[in-house]
UniProtKB/TrEMBL annotation:
Residue ranges constituting the Helicase ATP-binding domain according to the UniProt record: 203-407
Cellular compartments per GO CC: nucleolus
Described function: RNA helicase.
Ranges of Polar residues composition bias in the record: 53-70
Name of protein: ATP-dependent RNA helicase
Family, per entry: Belongs to the DEAD box helicase family.
Lineage: Eukaryota, Fungi, Dikarya, Ascomycota, Pezizomycotina
Residues forming coiled coils: none
Recorded domain comment: The Q motif is unique to and characteristic of the DEAD box family of RNA helicases and controls ATP binding and hydrolysis.
Compartments reported by the entry: Nucleus, Nucleolus
């Protein structure tokens, strides 16, 4: 399913946004504004033509310059508040208002700028005229731009917060692990010393059997923190059996002793991999997975052969507990719930309760039989792992843990173990992570992303691996298609004779060939990586990858594995499927092109870099206006707190200059604007050249808008759907049509209406650019949008649940 988990639609009817509204409630000013807007749309709908603002507003000059006096009329105020429309619709370009940006930046472009390929069709989208607006005019301006540029000391050394400990006294043996295991960690896994959380957890879990809640930041080595004590105890159990009878030891047929539950298949596979590496030091112990995505028959066969440690997703384990006789859980003495908060978020609470009930029942039955293995602990130890201690994790703790010990290793802790920040706030970004935010107007988003990536990959070696987080699968597909296409007007790389003489094809070349087939229909989800023509400089290739929950499981696994192994420059475009727990080696940069739906997700996303003490960078794209308020959240997630020393700021102009003007000094200080405009036009032409691409662009755009409405309530003040300028945003999806005229097959229409049938009003929908009065309580349209957003969020949750139960993208994230 490419609609990415959201069922409702923001389609706005052609008749306009205010369809015979009742002018009740609100202030007299709201009512008058609404009435005037309704008259405008009524005139339009009845063919009386658009209201000529220049003739009704004496304050407008012919060139569209406004001169609003102190005593403004309501309409004048409205005109002063909204970004003036200067779009070219079909005919000749006629500016109607002064652009909000500085005059030097004003670079109108007309159809004559758009050079079409010979014979290329540039069809106007059905049901609407093409709008070719300038990239650099009428953009909202930043509300937080500092008057003077603040220079950050980007290279100032920062003590990593998740690195292995450096004291010579902190060794794995000093924590209670056997010399054999410690030697294996050192020699085979190249792990010299434990991290802080490993030190705290291993000491505790090896010495006693109490339940535990492990809480630590991303990339701090939580996986080994819970796996090492389990492996150590199983090695001890084996040694104990051997002592009793020389030929006896734990082996695969001895029974299942430990279960690790993880929320996603990818994470389960990753845990299994770490386990396999560990168990090379105890080859008689066998681990395996049951996670779905493969035939149940083969999973049953694996269980029948016997496993000592099982990594599973909750849904699949419940299924096997109910239907696989060979699965005997009576000896299970260690249960781990990894990524506890995500397990709850994905609605696995019931499954976990079933698993716990089943384990208790079978353990009791076995005890009654008196047939326990000698040396096996009488009590089961349950370990809950999570980066946050939210309410839902607490609830999971209540159902799964008994008298649990809270294990936490946070460098911000005082000597007495207390922390000034509230429990929920203890989840912080790694200290060594260098963060920045980019303030980019909606129209400039696409070209800015391309420029940002181009700059990142310009010199081989500086940045090798990048993850770009995007809110929904359709948008991932759309951006992947652009990055891997050969856009007209982009310099082509000279052929590399060395590569051509090679007998075997490079994977990137193979994928490029497959890509050619894909270009005719970008909705085909068979190609997940290919050379990025757009991002590859002349000197080297950059490979682009895509990952989201609508891809087949096997494809997701192989894509991740390929990205992880790739030592050449590469970029992964992904939904939040890649945000949790995944340990992809050497990710240098994380770009949050679309901000996360919740603060915790944001921290998990940026935590894919700067892992285990390594350096990393993260940049989040914010739009001018209320989104800029999110910087406060970014600051609160850092150890350097309010000072925000390591949160840099970049503006779109800067990004475009650095990314597009790579050949040193240029006399024209606005040359980057021409370049950016050329790129934007090339992408728009690319989209127009094929109906499938155009449909993919519309789908991406609509899914993006719907996803935007699903930010958590506490953060909707930063990501306010009513402030989203749909018309400008459409440009970032290469669309030249009005949002209201867009029809996408397969997406439900009419959901943008409130219960009384009046369509919801959204900023810049092309029908009314005036944002709501700001008083949601008195504005019926604001309430309608709110209601709509609430419906969407509900639909997303329902869809996630449905997908899981239908076994489609089950145990997997939204994407
Ligand atoms: N003691 C250590 N020394 C060096 N590297 C380590 C050590 N322990 C773990 N690592 C490495 O650190 C990385 C992160 O480990 P892990 O995935 O367990 O982190 P995590 O805390 O679970 O992160 P997340 O919360 O993002 O899931 C892995 O690549 C792992 O190999």
């Amino acid at each position: 399913m490419a609609d990415d988990g959201m069922l409702l639609n923001f389609s706005i009817p052609d008749a306009g946004i205010l369809n015979k509204p009742k002018f009740k409630g609100g202030t007299w000013r709201d009512r008058l504004t609404a009435k005037k807007a309704a008259e405008h749309w009524h005139n339009k709908a009845t063919g009386q033509g658009p209201v000529d603002k220049t003739s009704t507003n004496p304050n407008r000059t012919e060139l569209g310059q406004r001169n609003v006096p102190a005593s403004k009329s309501v309409e004048q105020e409205e005109a002063a508040e909204r970004p003036a429309k200067r779009a070219r619709v079909g005919g000749a370009f006629k500016p109607t208002a002064k652009p909000s940006t500085d005059a030097a930046n004003f670079r109108p472009h007309t159809d004559s700028n758009i050079t079409k390929k010979p014979g290329q069709r540039s069809e106007a989208p059905k049901g609407g005229k093409q709008i070719v607006s300038s990239l650099f005019s009428y953009n909202p301006t930043s509300t937080t731009k500092p008057s003077t540029k603040i220079v950050f000391d980007d290279d100032a050394p920062v003590e990593p917060s998740n690195a292995p400990l450096s004291s010579e006294l902190d060794t794995f043996t000093s924590l209670g692990l056997s010399p054999a295991l410690a030697t294996h960690l050192l020699n085979k896994m190249e792990l010299k010393a434990p991290t802080a959380i490993q030190k705290a957890a291993i000491i505790q879990l090896v010495k006693d059997n109490s339940d535990a809640f492990i809480q630590a930041e991303t990339g701090s080595g939580k996986t080994l923190a819970y796996l090492l004590p389990i492996v150590q105890k199983l090695m001890d159990l084996s040694a104990n059996m051997k002592k009793r009878k020389a030929e006896e030891m734990v082996q695969r047929a001895s029974g299942l002793f430990a279960i690790v539950l993880a929320p996603t298949r990818e994470l389960s596979k990753q845990i299994e991999l770490v386990l396999e590496n560990l168990l090379r030091s105890a080859h008689w112990l066998v681990a395996g997975t049951v996670i779905g995505g493969e035939k149940k028959k083969s999973e049953k066969a694996r269980l029948r052969k016997g496993l000592n440690i099982l990594v599973a997703t909750p849904g699949r384990l419940v299924d096997h507990l109910e239907h696989t006789e060979a699965l005997d859980v009576s000896n299970v003495r260690w249960l781990v719930l990894d990524e506890g908060d995500r397990l709850v978020e994905l609605g696995f609470e019931q499954d976990i309760q079933k698993i716990l009930g089943n384990l208790n029942l079978r353990m009791r039955a076995k005890k009654d039989d008196n047939a326990s293995i000698p040396g096996l602990p009488a009590k089961r130890q349950t370990i809950l792992c999570s980066a946050t201690m939210k309410m839902d994790v607490e609830r999971l703790g209540q159902i799964s843990l008994k008298d649990a010990i809270h294990i936490r290793a946070d460098p911000t802790e005082n000597d007495d173990g207390t922390n000034e920040k509230a429990d929920d706030q203890v989840f912080l970004a790694p200290a060594q992570l260098k963060q920045s935010y980019a303030v980019v107007a909606p129209k400039l988003r696409l070209v800015s992303l391309m420029s940002f990536l181009k700059r990142s990959f310009f010199r081989k070696g500086a940045i090798m691996k990048v993850i770009v987080f995007i809110s929904c699968a359709d948008s991932v597909d759309f951006h992947f298609d652009i990055l891997t296409s050969e856009l007209e007007g982009f310099e082509k790389k000279d052929a590399d004779p060395h590569q051509e003489s090679k007998g075997s094809e490079e994977p990137a070349q193979k994928a490029t060939k497959a890509m050619a087939a894909l270009q005719s229909d970008p909705t085909k989800l068979t190609v997940t990586y290919a050379k990025s023509h757009v991002l590859s400089p002349k000197t080297h290739d950059v490979t682009a990858y895509r990952l989201h929950g609508s891809l087949q499981q096997s494809l997701r696994t192989s894509t991740l594995a390929h990205f992880a192994k790739n030592n050449e420059p590469s970029v992964l475009l992904a939904t939040d499927v890649a945000s949790r727990g995944l340990d992809l080696p050497n990710v240098d940069l994380v770009i949050e092109f679309d901000p996360a739906f919740a603060r915790e997700d944001h921290l998990h996303r940026i935590g894919r870099t700067a892992r285990a003490g390594r350096d990393g960078r993260a940049c989040i794209f914010l739009m001018p206006g209320c989104e800029e308020g999110y910087v406060e959240i970014l600051k609160s997630d850092r150890r350097d707190g309010e000072t925000g020393v390591h949160i840099g700021r970049q503006d779109a102009d800067e990004i475009l200059k650095k990314g597009l003007i790579t050949s040193g000094v240029t006399k024209d200080k606005n040359a980057y604007m021409d370049k950016a405009t050329d790129i934007q036009l090339a992408v728009e032409r690319w989209a127009l050249a094929s109906p499938a691409r155009l449909e993919s662009a519309r789908r991406a755009y609509q899914s993006h808008v719907r996803a935007y409405a699903t930010h958590v309530a506490a953060e909707r003040c930063y990501f306010d759907i009513k402030e989203l300028h749909l018309g400008h945003l459409a440009k970032a999806f290469a669309l030249r049509e009005r949002p209201s005229g867009m029809k996408v097959p397969g997406l439900r229409t009419g959901a943008g209406r409130n219960t009384k049938g009046a369509p919801a009003k959204i900023k810049g929908s092309g029908d009314n650019k005036k944002p709501s009065s700001g008083n949601a309580a008195t504005d019926p349209d604001s309430n309608a949008v709110e209601e709509e957003a609430a419906k969407m969020r509900k639909a997303v949750r329902a869809r996630e649940k449905f997908m899981r139960h239908a076994g489609m993208a089950d145990e997997f994230n939204l994407g």
